[in-house]
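Appendix B. Raw example, untouched.
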Amino acid sequence: MRLENFLGLTGAKLRNTPAISRFDSVVFDVDKLHRGDLFVASDTTSIPVAIERGAYAILTSEPSPILDEEIAWLIAEDIEQVLLRYLRYLLVEKKIKLIALGVLELELASLCIDAKEFCFHTSLQNSIEALQSHTITHFIAPAHILEALALEAYSLDAYPITVTQEYLFETSLLFLGSYYERLPLSPLFIPALGRVASLIDRFDLAYGFTHLHRFPHFRPHFLGSDFCEVEFGKSQRVLITEPRLHLLGLEREFLLQKAPWAKKLFLCHSTSLPDFVTMPIENVRNFLYNRDFHLALCESFDVAMLAHKKREQTLL
């Protein structure tokens, strides 16, 4: 790509008068950089390595020493906006078809669908890398990303899924004509799975549920007496972690409705939420040790620290 075109498209500013006039690809990992690439330097300590590997341009958010006058030194206060505009250029230039999915649906789709010509947006970096190095025909992203790109996309209606049996953390169902027993997905997320099914059905995509256990939401951790995590279903005490704060309220209501028999705890550590106990992360384990519970819904944290602390107490 011509350097002047990149500057005009993205709003990045040129700090010097380089000998080069174009570059090949935008690269984020110095280990993946090839001669002729533009390097996005999130860590300025990697710039000398990028130069040694043959970078034609360096993009930073703050001024850094110009170590080689022959290459282009670019700066932008908001690198995310620069990358967003470059992503838009790639999508338009390659005539990629755009599909809008919700964030949860996108996460499920990326775990279930095997289609190399489809790019599932997880970050600006990953999307740019995919569009530069693969033959992509469709770009699937959340609506707010597509709005920021100012590009039109089409949405999908949910495909009807017949649920045959519900559990707190598993669902048996009919999916596109096939029966699946006790999938590791809470009934909470079946509507999102329905829109993923619509995508699969519309484009006749290959899919599978082998990686569904990686879905990070409403994730159960069955805890033994020593607070070590045990096999699924092998304990009466379950810690449920959720990385997205806005889902905690919905998940709390689900537990109140579906498990009225259980002793429940609700806690978070980074902010205050209605009906949730808030405490510093370092206090969570002691709080859990001193409570009798069946289900504890928590903002995500490193569950392994519970067992580590317990072992320390035992040694004492």
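End of appendix B.
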